[in-house]
Amino acid sequence: MSTLPSSIDVAIVGAGAAGIGAATRLRQAGVSALMIEARDRVGGRAHTIPAAGDVIDLGCEWLHSANKNVLVQVAEAHGFTVDRGTPGWSGPASVGLPSRDHAEYRQALSDFFDAVEEAAATGRDRPASELLPKNSRWEMLLRAVATYYSGTELEHISIIDFDNYEDTQINWTVREGYGAMIAGAAKGLPVVFDCAVSKIDHAGKSVKLETQRGTIEAKAAIVCVPTPLIADSTLRFDPALPAKQAAAAGLPLGVADKIFFEIEGDFSYPRGHFYGATDRVETFSFDMFPRGRKLLSGFYGGAFAVELEKAGPAAAEAEARRQIVAVLGADANRRLRFMRTTAWRSDPFARGGYSSALPGHVGDRQILAAPVDGRLFFAGEACSKIHFSTAHGAWETGVKAAEDYLGAR
Fold it and tell me: Are residues 212 and 149 in the same domain?
């Protein structure tokens, strides 16, 4: 839509996976709904762009737990190609780590996950860092990997929340791009762009949303924004919702960024995965020729990603090249053309990658997701108990929020 209507049945704040899931369900029920999006595009933290004659995903990339992932069906229903191949990072490292060492590391990782599961079963929450193996040669790499899957360090991760996450360890991709698929699922759904919501007044019988393009009145609102925007009152509620604000603060977004190089000319190195270093947390997880693309992509998270975001793309490129040279040699570096980095923490509408519960805050997901007075509903990956940090978790909560509204009418 080019203009903001004065009223609507349901206003959906945010056009990411959660908002699109909610809008899809409401359309099926014949309910008039509008997604109100601060950006100039749909997708939120899922964003595909063209690059090097192909596409790259700046955000969401993997259909995690793909054999149970609702977005596999969504993708195929909208004509996208699901690549059911195995990701390079799930198998033996191709370079930089001998097979025996890699097997030892994978065992250490499995043992750590088992220790977390056993500790979580006691019901006593504590930081996941307390479960790290003592005096292990793999401690730093285990810490680094945590910053990839949680976006933050183990000291900030609840073991119970960590254990609640459901993972079948089957990971697929979308050939045309994950972000493109999410955007494709939004086709035909009403949305207004460049329209950040600053306040939701729910004092009366209706809900009034104040935006940079005017005010819209609705019977109900479904709020699908990242937790920092609620925690720091970028999005305000009147009357205030202190329990929601506190819950959002207990579910901060970690940082997980990417760097991309195009591979030019002859490149004889084997395809697959490698780490820039295994003896420190400040390391990249690299993938050469991912899904056959002529790319070398790198993944990095936590405080390391925050530091590189602050330093800028040139600093991230320099550090990535230094680690690549250390593993592959100088010749490899000459055949790599820097493309770009991501900076999700610096994105004002995201403020990070995905949520993890702080120790002692596992219950905050349920608090954040709970409806208010049958007129305010909440969705997003942070509202999912078992699929947080994923687009399919966000989608599922959007659908649930829509169904909660339908049940409350």
Answer: no
Rg for the chain (alpha carbons), in Å?
Answer: 21
Q: pTM for this one?
A: 0.96
245/260 same-domain check? no
Domain count, the chain: 2
Which CATH number does the domain housing residue 376 bear?
A: 3.50.50.60
Cβ atoms < 10 Å from Cβ of 53: 8
160 and 200 share a domain?
no
Residue 69 forms part of a structural domain: no
3-state secondary structure of 332: helix
**pLDDT category of residue 95 using cuts at 50, 70 and 90:** low
How many C-beta atoms surround the C-beta of residue 65 within 10 A? 22
165 with 138, same domain: the answer is yes
Q: Give Cα 274 distance to the centre of its chain.
A: 22
DSSP string, 100-158: HHHHHHHHHHHHHHHHHHHHHTTT---BGGGGSPTT-TTHHHHHHHHHHHTSS-GGG-B
Helix axes 302-311 and 139-149, enclosed angle (nearest 10): 70
104-130 per-position pLDDT tens digit: 998 999 999 999 999 999 999 999 999
Same-domain status, 240 and 264: no
What's the pLDDT tens digit per position in 156-192? 999 999 999 999 999 999 999 999 999 999 999 999 9
pLDDT in tens, 17-28: 999 999 999 999
Question: Can you give 220-238 as a three-state secondary structure string?
Answer: EEEECCCHHHHHCCCCEEE
